[in-house]
Amino acid sequence: MDDKQIIELYFARDERAITETDIKYRKYCSAIAYGILRDKEDVEEVLNDTYSGAWNSIPPNEPAVLSTYLGKITRNLSLKRVRSANAVKRGGDEFLSAFEEISEIISSDEDIEKEIEAKELSAYINTYLRALPDTERGVFICRYWYFNSISDISKQFGFSQSKVKSMLYRTRNKMFSKLKEEELL
Known about the structure:
This protein is mainly α and 185 residues long. It has ten helices and no strands. It folds into two domains: 3-84, Rna Polymerase Sigma Factor, Chain: A (Orthogonal Bundle); 93-181, Arc Repressor Mutant, subunit A (Orthogonal Bundle). 76% of the residues lie in helices and 0% in strands. The N and C termini lie far apart (43 Å).
């Protein structure tokens, strides 16, 4: 079933929408949740919450890209779960490690949301990432969107761990410089 048909099921309040969403997007949403949570039981709970969140928000929302919409719900629910629990006990050390690496860019002494609108920053980062070569963008997204470990990224791309770390370091620094140039930080 295509995305438009699934969205129509949500608008018709047909419970098959959840079944079809699960069939089509379980692997995708599970990968996002597992990259953050590293716990299969937590992943299952987040998947259920994701489907519930989609059910409760479609309508009135009509997502242009259903996979992105579901991915964002899954990611936000996973991050919320990590924040509310002791992350290290739950196996979230990759999340903490990745978050610490990027935190110098996305935070400051003041609350960044008070300094600029989150949409403006997000739009600029998306534009910046689209301009990167495919490999650099892929490595960056694997680390900071999916919270994959350095080891997993090195295997996926066939690079040494030191190359992955170096690539992430350079990309973070370039992005930080660009954000400062644009006076977004």
